[in-house]
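Illustration: DUF1318 domain-containing protein.
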Amino acid sequence: MRWLIIVLAASLSWSAWALDLQQAKQQGLVGEQLNGLVGVVQASSEVKAVANDINRQRLASYQDIARRTGTSLTVVQSRAGQLNIERTQSGHYIQLADGSWRRK
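Result:
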């Protein structure tokens, strides 16, 4: 029983160390793309996992908006991408139309 408590405590503390979107942006590991999704600037398995999780959530939200408004998913993503880039903090990465990354 004691080992179970130790394992549970260790797994809970690990989640506190896990990289989140804001940290990844601050570290220059991810950036905002024109399609409304997060793109990986510097790849690692943890960064890719964060980006994939965020993108899965964003796509679900975009699909819901498209369905409710009768708009295509492409249009919703494009508008979301513009808004996300506009709201990106100075010093964080954004993706340009040619696919390159630059700090805002």
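Reading the tokens back as a structure: Helices lie at 2-17, 21-26, 45-69, 73-87.
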